[in-house]
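Checklist before submission:
- one chain only
- standard amino acids only
- sequence pasted in full

Submission:
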Amino acid sequence: MAYGAEHYETAVERSNYAVALALSGKQQEGEAELLHAMASQEKMPAPDFEILANFYQKFAQLKIAQGEAALALRWIDRIDQLPANPATPATLDLPWESELGTLRTAALVCAERWLEARAQGIATDAIVRRDRNPDAAVRVEVSLLRAVVSSHLDDAATTQQLTRVAVAELAVLPHPPARFLGLAQALKPQMQDSTPSFQLQRR
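Returned file contents:
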């Protein structure tokens, strides 16, 4: 790493390496690297809170993947508690607010807190719709999560409607993350209806 072990650029590189380690099955090593990246940024004289939020987001996603919803929600709460950067007072602009809402919805789904997940999913979907240029992956994940939640609340009509939307959006998303495919698998019974066919590639 060219910038020195505790430089902020090194911390960003370390966080990406950490996620790759965790996804390759080396969970403990990956988490240790990510915690190191967080500590490096937190010790900066003027921490970049947007970078810290990204690190916390990654850690929460790892915890959701492990089924540790309570820990994921704690890290999401830490994002909420971060102050805005002086240079960017509106740190939680629409794109970031939608990402955070999607992350919280995913954690609530992981916790099987279905009513809270439905309310969070609806609120996040509204944020995505207000965004003039929404992130395609966020839009797809929100739709998938809302469909999964609806399927657990036995709302058949809404589930079918949300599933159609989610699958149609997923069909045109290049190289969807593995977690999207997991959500789609949970919706297979609802896909027997007139949902479009598609091919998915893991990344």
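Reviewer check: Residues 1-6, 86-92, 197-203 have pLDDT under 50 and may be disordered.
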